[in-house]
Amino acid sequence: MSDITSSLIVDFTSAVPETNRSKPPVERLLAGNPEQVARNYFSDSTGRFFAGIWESTPGKWRVKYSENEFCYITRGRVRIEHESGRGWTFSAGASFVIPAGFSGVWEVLEPTAKLYVIYEPA
Length: 122
Hints:
By secondary structure, the protein is mainly β.
């Protein structure tokens, strides 16, 4: 018999998320002192699919993605630069996908919040 709660809708307005406060690792930090909060509202049973809300104060750090991530910016502004030098700036209302294998820099230009959906390939 399966646990019925594992098949119910997860409503971000009423669910109690798993909350994690962090800062980028010092060896990846390029500027600022960004403080981040991730509120993970959903993780599937495989531990490879996640959804939640992430927030950060301004700062700049190197990233390397092993996961695929869909982002929807709800507040603020960010600049993301690929290691090749190509860059994108996103503000509230923008949505985009960062594919696994992306390597570059995240820069939070003003306090930012995003909805995220992450899939970590096997």
